[in-house]
């Protein structure tokens, strides 16, 4: 089974009106990225996967903080509605700002809506991931078997503090909550080695490879580090739709050794790449296969 663990909820149910279309030049170096998209756009983009994990990020000003413009009050309902439209191929994650009041009520409401995990982007949401209330929130997720996917590493959004995305901060979280299932997004790019040493030591901490193939050297270094430290089996496939689609992500990973032509540098074994693509992500995160 192929699981794309990292896709963002489409911003629009139907075709995007021209006036609402948003395009960013600085997300990829090879082409602009359209961050507004329809349900059909998402379905087409993840056609290469059997199951996609889908989420929004709870922020007050989505355009300034994430570039993914959706009404903040619809953060979780938009995801739940989208998942309900094709529940055999989609798993939804909720998002809340752990520093807000009533977060536990919102989590309970979302779980009733069928959302099965949590997406947090402390940099986009502007909270210190080791703050007291954040820790209380992780404890709740650990107790209720809700995996958390953390944004890690770089972001082009100016107002998003990079210090909240450093992979070694996630080591601190995992030290406190050993049973919490964690996914470190983007292998913490460009801090792939820091991510690798973190997932290596914590049994329930994983990393997704979304977007990393867009920077071939970072991708090569990060995957090779995972192989050399014996934890490539903890890497999960992700596309980061709308940045890329699942097919592109798989093809990009399979090209990881292309930059080595003419060198004697060690190769990332093809089996390691296939293992990422076919990883048992749902088993790792304690999620049920959708039916
Ligand atoms: Zn993302």
Task: Characterize the overall form.
Answer: globular
Q: Give the uncertain stretches in residue-range form.
A: none
- Which structural class best describes the helix and strand composition? alpha/beta
Mean pLDDT: 96
CATH class: Alpha Beta
What's the name of the CATH homologous superfamily?
Answer: Metal-dependent hydrolases
Secondary structure: helix percent: 25-40%
Q: Give a list of the ligands.
A: zinc ion
State the helix count. 12
Run of helices and strands: EEEHEHHEHEHHEHEHEHEHHH
- Please identify, by name, the CATH architecture: Alpha-Beta Barrel
Domains (count):
1
Strand content: 5-15%
Taking all Cα atoms into account, the compactness measure Rg is: 18 Å
- By CATH, the topology is TIM Barrel
Termini distance?
A: 14 Å
The main β sheet shows up as: 8 strands, parallel
| Number of beta strands | 10
InterPro entries: ACMSD, Amidohydro-rel, Metal_Hydrolase
Organism: Amycolatopsis samaneae
Domain Amidohydrolase-related: 72-260
Keywords: Lyase
């Amino acid at each position: 089974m192929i699981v794309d663990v990292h896709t963002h909820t489409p911003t629009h149910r139907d075709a995007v009106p021209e006036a609402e279309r948003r395009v960013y030049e600085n997300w990829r170096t090879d082409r602009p990225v359209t961050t507004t998209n329809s349900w059909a756009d998402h379905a087409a983009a993840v056609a290469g996967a059997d199951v996609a994990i889908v989420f929004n990020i709870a922020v007050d000003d989505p355009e300034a903080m994430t570039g993914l413009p959706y009404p903040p009050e619809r953060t979780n309902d938009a995801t739940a509605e989208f998942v309900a439209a094709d529940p055999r191929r989609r798993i939804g994650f909720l998002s809340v700002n752990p520093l807000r009041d009533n977060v536990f009520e919102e989590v309970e409401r979302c779980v009733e809506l069928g959302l099965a995990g949590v997406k947090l982007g402390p940099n986009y949401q502007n909270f210190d991931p080791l703050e007291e209330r954040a820790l209380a929130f992780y404890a709740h997720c650990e107790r209720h078997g809700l995996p958390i996917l953390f944004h890690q590493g770089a972001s082009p959004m100016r107002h998003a503090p990079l210090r909240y995305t450093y992979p070694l901060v996630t080591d601190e979280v995992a030290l406190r909550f050993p049973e919490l299932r964690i996914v470190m997004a983007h292998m913490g790019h460009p801090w792939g080695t820091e991510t690798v040493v973190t997932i290596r030591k914590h049994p329930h901490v994983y990393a997704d490879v979304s977007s990393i193939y867009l920077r071939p050297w970072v991708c090569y270094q990060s995957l090779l580090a995972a192989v050399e430290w014996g934890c490539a089996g903890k890497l999960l496939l992700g596309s980061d739709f709308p940045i890329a689609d699942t097919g592109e992500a798989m093809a990009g990973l399979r090209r990881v050794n292309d930059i080595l032509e003419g060198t004697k540098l060690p190769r990332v074994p093809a089996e390691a790449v296939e293992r990422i693509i076919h990883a048992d992500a749902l088993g790792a995160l304690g999620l049920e296969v959708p039916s």
